[in-house]
Amino acid sequence: MERQPNPNQLAVDFGVSRRVIFVDRDFMITRLYAPIKFNRVRGGWYYTDETWVLPGINVTEGELLAFFLSVEVAKRYLGTGLEETLRSAVEKLSKNVKGSITVDLDTLYSHYSFSAPTLIAAKEQALVDLHHAIAGSKRVWMRYYTASRDEHTERTVHPYHLSNIRGDWYLVAFDELRKEFRNFSVGRIEEWKLLVDKFKRDPEFSIAKHMGTAFQAERGGESVEVVIHFADQAARYVREKHWHDTQQIEEQDGGGLILKFQTGGLGEVKRWVMQYGGGAEVITPMNLREEIKKEINSMLMRYS
Asked: What one-character-per-residue DSSP string does 39-71 give?
């Protein structure tokens, strides 16, 4: 009759003490819910359920919930191009978790919902290829659509960094055509190809410095001081968020505030300020103030 494993034999096989064997057995029973019993006839331990196997992963309920939420957020804010891959990841995890935690994805979906921002669709393969180009310092040829000029151009770039801003992906790269670092919307890259030859990465490049003058996604030109007055109702929403690393807020009588920051992305500032309507007024710079006045007059004529 075949004997079953016992603490004495296991201690010899693994080169540990009997105490360690008992501690490990208790862990398997209490934490992994292993169906272990002792067979006095065969003098050793056995599984009452012969189909039981060690779980592929051991997590707490909180950890599993956190992972589920992070994946759902990622699918919406990292771009729809990654949705299939992320969904596959959470499905695989749910199938490999065993023990007391049951993964019921349908229930989780009914308990939580997420509203995604409007995103420019970025292809998953483009993100993967650009990642390899950055890691391997490989030049990339691409056909790119510039929305502001309604123009399609061919570029060869040196990819340095991928940045996700409000859900949209941007490639920071040195543009051989413009001879400077530029930001490219990955969703507007129509065609691309990794080239064989490599580029020499600039050791002085810093993504923090590159984006330091930006406002949200736009870098624009030379950094200038922007001063905006927000009336009471608009100020309630402005003061609760962090808009720029250089921002300063000065509270005003009546509940309003003045927001100051340094940026070169005045086009983005213009679009942002105008969403507050009459609740916001640009004080400086004057060229931005004039641009908004022109936009308001154009809107007035259109609605007249």
From this structure: ETTTTEEEESSTT----SB---HHHHHHHHHHH
- What are the E-state strand segments in 243-298? 248-251, 257-263, 280-284
pLDDT tens across the length of the chain (304 residues): 466 888 888 888 888 898 988 898 888 888 778 888 988 888 888 888 887 777 665 566 666 667 667 766 666 655 555 666 666 766 666 666 555 555 555 666 677 776 666 667 778 788 889 999 999 999 999 999 988 788 999 999 999 999 887 778 889 999 998 898 988 989 899 999 999 999 999 999 888 777 767 777 666 667 889 999 999 999 999 998 888 888 899 999 989 999 999 888 888 899 899 999 999 999 999 999 999 999 999 999 999 8
In Å, how far from its chain's centre is CA 64?
19
**CATH numeric code, 124-210:** 2.30.30
Considering the entire predicted model, what is its pTM?
0.58
Strand pairing partners for 36? 47
Q: Could you tell me the CA-to-CA distances from 73 to 52, 69, 87, 103, 111 in Å, in that order?
A: 34, 6, 11, 18, 14
Q: Judge whether 185 and 169 are in contact, CB under 8 Å.
A: yes
Each domain of the chain, given as residue ranges in start order, spans 7-47, 61-111, 124-210, 224-303
Crossing angle between the packed helical segments 7-14 and 18-30, to the nearest 10 degrees: 110
Q: Count the residues in the chain.
A: 304
Structure tokens at 27: 């862990």
Q: From the CB of residue 108, how many other CB atoms can be counted at a distance below 10 Å?
A: 16
